[in-house]
Amino acid sequence: MTRIDRASTTIAAAPAAVYDALLDRDALEAWLPPDGMRGRIERWDPRPGGGFRMVLTYLDPTDSPGKTSEATDVVDVGFADLARPARVVQTAVFQADDPAYAGTMTMTWHLAAAGDGTEVTVTATGVPAGIDQAVHQEGIASSLAHLASYVEGIR
């Protein structure tokens, strides 16, 4: 069976506003890092075939050692598909020496109008075996909560 990690939430904003936050460098740095991390984007090219490199730093790496170094995860993200305002498909490759984190993970962000808001569902496939499924889904849910706070705060 192929592993699928998934989380969803409803955000009190139009799909276009949510979509814009998925493709804005400053916005991504603010909301994408899950609880316990901060992020910095080093490279930015927001177009199909483009992407970005994000350095995620653990605020306390004691219980969560990084994939790239003791306290960091570095991930190269490509934009495989951009369909405004309904979908963003990303490919993600972690920079890690441990083969348990090798491979390309695909993250699909589905945005659907839901009343006055947007239902956002994130589906991850090809998740490296070294990433615990429960922890990953919790991280996605945390990022979604941050996305909601970010987008709802700028309305």
Give the CA-based shape.
globular
Roughly what percent helix?
10-25%
| Number of helices, counting only DSSP H or I runs of 4 residues or more | 3
- Strand ordering within the main sheet: 1-7-6-5-4-3-2
Helix-strand category: alpha+beta
Task: Note the topology.
Layout: E1 4-11, H1 15-22, H2 25-31, E2 37-45, E3 51-58, E4 72-83, E5 87-94, E6 105-114, E7 117-125, H3 133-153
Give a short synopsis of this structure.
Helix content is 23%, strand content 41%. The protein has helices at 15-22, 25-31, 133-153, and strands at residues 4-11, 37-45, 51-58, 72-83, 87-94, 105-114, 117-125. A seven-stranded antiparallel beta sheet has the order 1-7-6-5-4-3-2, with helices on one face.
Describe this entry's structure for a reader:
There is one protein chain. By secondary structure, the chain is of the alpha+beta class. The protein has three helices and seven strands; from the N terminus they run βααββββββα. It has helices spanning 15-22, 25-31, 133-153; strands spanning 4-11, 37-45, 51-58, 72-83, 87-94, 105-114, 117-125. The protein has a seven-stranded antiparallel beta sheet, covered by helices on one side. Strand 6 (105-114) and strand 7 form a beta hairpin. It is globular, with a radius of gyration of 15 Å. It starts with a strand and ends with a helix. The model has no long low-confidence stretch (mean pLDDT 93).
